[in-house]
Amino acid sequence: MTGFSGSYDPGDVTFLLKVIELAPLPLERRERLIQSGQRHYSEMIGPEAAPAPEYLKIFHAALERNLGRLARDVVRLAALIANSRPGPVTLVSLARSGTPVGVLVGRILKNWLQRECAHYSISIIRDRGVDQNALNRLLAERPAESVVFVDGWTGKGVIARELKKALADYNRRTGRDLAGTLAVLTDLAGVAGLAVGADDYLIPTALLNSVVAGLISRTILNDELIGPNDFHGCLYYKELAPQDLSRWLVERVLAQAKLELASDPSLWAAQPLTPAAQERAAQANATFMAKTRQEFGVVDDNLIKPGLGEATRVLLRRAPGLLLLRDPTDPDVAHALSLAAARATPIRAEPGLPYRAVAIIKDLKGQATSAGPDLNGPLGPRNQLP
Predict the structure, then answer these.
(1) What is the side-by-side order of every strand in the sheet holding 357-361?
(2) How many other CB atoms are found less than 10 A from the CB of residue 141?
(3) What is the topology classification, in CATH, of domain 275-379?
(4) Which of 12, 191, 235, 382 would bridge 8 by S-S if both were Cys, CB 3.0 to 4.6 A apart?
(5) What stretch(es) of the chain map to CATH 3.30.1330.30?
(6) Torsion over CA of 251, 118, 206 and 365, rounded to 10 degrees?
(7) Tens digits of per-residue pLDDT, 284-307?
(8) With contact defined as beta carbons under 8 Å apart, do 62 and 212 qualify?
């Protein structure tokens, strides 16, 4: 098994994934199969098209508003990782949302801090664990003590807990001692090993799919296509190459990071999120989940997706039943409003929300949600899907 770099420069990342072909299923059918338990979400894929021009304008506006914050946080995360690993560094980003962050951090470590660094991107799947064939491959090439896992953010902390459990199982089975340190830009769930902060801000890579992540799909684990010795799979959307922003985004963020460092060299002295701050984030998350389950009658936590990043994912590729917004006039939820309008998703303003956005997936097994006032009408046309 060999890795590949997607649409990134080969020196930026090695995807330990198997490129496959898989026909997409319509969203509603896919959601029913998932919620009925007939199929796991990782066995299927939905269609992915090029972003519409109107939606790209929203993306670029969001990027410019949040570019300084993103650039500063990427530098801070690189500094935290460098301080946590005195020797070689092996970044292992969680495909695909962690991949752009891993590429950026890897560039900073190698080119600005002159650290010996490699970057792999591997699959982790809820309820299925991390790709153990990929772990075997990267540990054949890199020391276990150098490994740091990278993602963009945590939502409810499901993937962080999945990673911890999967690595404990892997270590027991192989006799290794691979630490499950997860490094993120923002840790809404209070569960990451290294985090720059814990507030819900718009990480622009969340707004788009493959065209900011090396043209790869969400990862796939389907026994019909993935053998016992294979890496987890992905589709490679080479047909979207004309719209690809993956390399451009890296250069844009790094250029801004140089400007941020020139005005504030103390970014290199970043301190990780404190245990007390993580505990507050974890408690806020738990309180929110309990309140939301009760208020909206949601019996499956997997249907509740807190935070801008997770809510955006739902709007892009799941069946959203309700979008909660702390402030619908917030410019950083403009993309969510556009996506919700295109999907005819009810929107409810919740001024006391601990997150800027929360999506509740439509319960196709019959559990209703109380949508409250539908704000969809005045918020724009219903034809702006990316």
Answers:
(1) 304-306, 357-361, 320-325, 347-349
(2) 10
(3) 60s Ribosomal Protein L30; Chain: A; (3.30.1330)
(4) 12
(5) 275-379
(6) 160
(7) 999 999 999 999 999 899 999 999
(8) no
Dihedral angle sign, alpha carbons of residues 11, 17, 19, 21: negative
Distances, alpha carbon 1 to alpha carbons 4, 76, 97, 139, 279, in Å:
10, 34, 23, 14, 41
Cα-only R_g, the chain: 20
| Amino acid letter, residue 39 | R
CA–CA distance, 87 with 78 (Å, rounded to integer)? 14
At 32-81, the pLDDT tens digits run 999 899 999 999 999 999 999 999 999 999 999 999 999 999 999 999 99
